[in-house]
Design a protein that fits this description.
The complex is a heterodimer of chains A (277) and B (286). Chain A has 13 helices and no strands. Chain A has 277 residues and is mainly alpha-helical. Chain B has a single domain, classed as MetI-like (MetI-like fold), CATH 1.10.3720.10.
């Protein structure tokens, strides 16, 4: 049993609900089995298929002209998008935390819309306003700008939501002290506010970048999927599957997987460092 | 105060142009000619089947991931094990992997040339291009949410009440139902809402494994895409509106649930748990 009250106070904090030894082992086994069946085995199949023609074929698939063009477009667009959202996301977080205006709760809830709205609907809504039938005469459909706009839409919440808690916790006395010592608004931002928000901005940027790299649903209707021009990697993978080049699709997938994995490791190292501080 | 107003202007302008105006526009486009056309479009047999199939995905994937999520969170938080960090990392994978890659992975595993495909065909089980494959895809993409939302709440509530319950003679099962679950219910509920939203809207992974056969393996997001590509814009808009309304409901539940679960949740951002788990592990280890 959990022990005598007297021992609880001296002993290190005991876990509450604990399964008996056999139960924990059984539970762990089921978790590992579930994760293997749902996540790991399918991913292993991708790795296996990508290497089915040997390393040479893998390399050729990844470095093919169309594949490289798609990969470059994906990475460059994602970088631009996270830069845009780092800027606007931080401003939005600021306005939501430090400003007061009627309807603030509604605006705050609106930030999560891109998480809730299905990606295909996101693409379609953008197309109705910024497509060929645009009522404001702004037709960006089938251009690289459309890719940027769609990716901005789907990754909008990441940075705002990562910065908001930091802003709420931030000690305002530091700013007041700086101001009283004669620092101007911009200096206070640059020397005090920005350094404090940076961990949140970076964490949000990493997550948004990972999301942008793999995005598919919001892009297919609005990007036009034109090879060498508006074809991102996920769309390229899809077209390779459809034309029967499955191992080529798998090779590019492995590259995307490797980048995602690296980003996840970066996020968790980063979060750990943040938590230690 | 010009600084305040210019910041407001930037924030509202960006949100308006990127989020509000497009969403408003699709509502306008759908109901431009009254309620009749969208209702007709949504009551066609293919549309009704798509709605039914989408709800079926939710009905299977969400309970499975919820049970898994709560159990897994309990193991991660309450049972020290050196494999926990690895499990924690694997759970985050679906957040970072492209849905297309997830679709391809299932395609490779269950396709005719795949690892499991030939055996399953022999047994007469069809996974790819049918409902089981789509369910597997839905489970894969929505796997992390319940775990991620439950872990911080579990850490927050601590173990004192549970210890009290077991001191008073409750067994583990009773303690879980009467003490632990009520304490973590908002975190779990928030995770369930996020899982549901993701399953409802999943497009990329499902499009690869479903074959998108109208009236058979077409969920609502697939129906929207196909209708649009076949120049049936009215049906595409109507389908999108149904999904958007579901999303707005989700948003409402998220803002309620998020407030209630505030104790440990950071919202749908998946990083909250990582640090906490790795921290508690390293602490226990030392």
């Amino acid at each position: 049993m959990e022990g005598h009250p007297a021992t609880i106070s001296t002993a290190p904090p005991r876990a509450g609900i604990r399964l008996p030894g056999v139960g924990a082992g059984l539970g762990r086994g089921m978790v590992v089995l579930y994760l293997s069946l749902i996540v790991m085995l399918p991913l292993a199949a991708v790795l296996d298929e990508s290497l089915s023609g040997g390393l040479g074929a893998f390399w050729d698939s990844v470095t093919g002209a169309e594949s490289m063009a798609a990969l470059k477009l994906t990475v460059v667009s994602s970088l631009i998008v996270v830069a845009i959202n780092a800027f606007f996301g931080t401003i939005i977080a600021w306005v939501l935390v430090r400003d007061e205006f009627p309807g603030k709760g509604a605006v705050n809830a609106l930030i999560d819309l891109p998480f809730a709205l299905p990606t295909i609907v996101a693409g379609l809504t953008l197309l109705t306003l910024y497509g060929a039938e645009s009522p404001i005469g702004l037709d960006i459909a089938f251009t690289r700008v459309a890719i940027i706009v769609a990716l901005c839409f789907v990754t909008l919440p990441f940075i705002t939501r990562a910065v908001q808690p930091l802003l709420m916790e931030m000690d305002r006395e530091m700013e007041e002290a700086a101001t009283s010592l004669g620092a101007g608004g911009f200096t206070v931002f640059r020397r005090i506010i920005f350094p404090n928000l940076l961990p949140g901005i970076l964490a949000g940027v990493l997550l948004a970048f990972a999301r942008a790299l793999g995005e598919y649903g919001s892009l297919i209707l609005i990007s036009g999927n034109i090879p060498f021009k508006t074809e991102v990697s996920s769309v390229f993978i899809r077209s390779q599957i459809e034309s029967g080049n499955v191992s080529g699709a798998a090779a590019v997938s492995v590259v995307l997987l490797a980048i995602s994995l690296a980003l996840l490791v970066a996020v968790s190292l980063f979060a750990r460092r943040g938590a230690r501080r | 105060m010009t600084a305040r107003w210019s910041l407001r202007g930037l924030a509202f302008g960006y949100l308006g142009l990127l989020l509000l105006a497009p969403v408003g526009m699709i509502f306008y486009k759908t109901f431009e000619h009254g309620l009749g056309p969208p209702i007709d479009a949504m009551t066609s047999p293919d549309a009704l089947h798509a709605i039914w199939l989408t709800l079926l995905m939710v009905a299977v994937a969400v309970p499975l991931n919820t049970v898994f999520g709560v159990g897994c969170a309990l193991l991660l938080v309450r049972h020290r094990w050196k494999g926990n960090a690895v499990i924690d990392g694997i759970i985050n994978l679906p957040f970072a992997i492209s849905p297309i890659v997830i679709g391809l992975s299932l395609f490779l595993l269950y396709g005719n040339a795949g690892w499991f495909g030939p055996t399953l065909t022999e047994w007469g089980v069809k996974v790819l291009f049918s409902i089981p494959g789509m369910i597997l895809a839905s489970i894969f993409v929505s796997l992390p949410f319940v775990v991620r939302e439950t872990v911080p709440v579990l850490q927050e509530i601590g173990t004192e009440q549970e210890q009290a319950a077991s001191t008073l003679g409750a067994n583990a099962w009773q303690t879980f139902w009467r003490v632990t679950l009520p304490a973590i219910r908002w975190g779990v509920a928030y995770g369930v809402v996020l899982t549901t939203a993701r399953v409802l809207g999943e497009f990329g992974a499902v499009t690869i494994v479903s074959g998108s056969i109208s009236g058979q393996t077409e969920t609502l997001p697939l129906f929207v895409a196909k209708s649009f590509e076949q120049f049936n814009e009215q049906a595409a808009y109507a389908g999108a509106i149904v999904l958007a309304l579901l999303a707005l409901t989700t948003l409402l539940l998220m803002s309620i649930g998020g407030r209630k679960a505030k104790a440990g949740s950071s919202g749908p951002i998946p990083i909250a748990g990582d640090a906490a788990i790795s921290m508690s592990n390293s602490k226990e280890g030392s």
